[in-house]
Amino acid sequence: MNPGIKQYLDENGATYTPEALRKQLLDAGYDPGEVDAALSGWNAGDANGPGAEARRTFARWALWLHIAALLAVFVLLIALKGTNAIGTALWGCAVLAVALVIGWAISSLIGRALLPIGGSLVALIVPAISAIALGGSCFALLSSAIGTPPRQGTVSLELEAPRAFEGSGAANCYVGEGFVGIEVSSAQPLGTLDGREVTVHLTRYGDSTASEPGPAPETSVSVLFNPTNAADFPESYNTIFSTTFDVDVASDSLSGTITFDGLALEPGELTPTTAPPETVSGTVSWECE
Known about the structure:
Number of strands: 10
Order of helices and strands: HHHHHHEEEEEEEEEE
Low-confidence stretches: none
Distance between the termini: 71 Å
Shape: rod-shaped
Number of helices: 6
């Protein structure tokens, strides 16, 4: 048997069909008679020997390791990020599939070289490392790109006169880690006042759950009056240096009440910047899942 043909069959015979092997050898320039004779002898002998069986087992497991990595990345992304991440997960896994094919091909070549030395278990270490490294890197990149979905909850807002208002509705809650914090935004208008839709956004950070003291808590509340008429301008009341808060928040930040005094109207095109800002006071409370 031609040494070049034998080497090719030893390296690839357990992976590809006889037809594919023959085509590749002919494309490489080997004589058709030599190729047919070599394939006949290899199929009758080496292909049925213990070494060939080990190569076939190795090839199957190397492939399944990379397929398992691809499926694990997709399932983990959906489990951790929710069904809204399906589109990004599919796109990312399509890119990962290409990388895994390359990783499988390279790691399989290295692993087959280790078969005579340490057997299938030792040889599979290389494709296992390839699958874990590529899958883990892709998961980390996609996980950071997708972000964490908000928790669902409810938020209630009460404003004092002269802009008296009371309303409640669904909320999106973003919970921090470490020094516990939370952001709560009304997911839809809480009602209308003077023909404007009312929404609220609040943040509370710095309530440490650790044994050591953390930074001073920071609180911010914003109330937006969004006009339904496109000709009008939105009005936004925001926290300023003179705003005061009375805060009662749970240790996990998932519920609480903030009483505020002195949210100031942000100057607009029709608001003189030299005039004292109009202010509102009231209470906002939330409950998050």
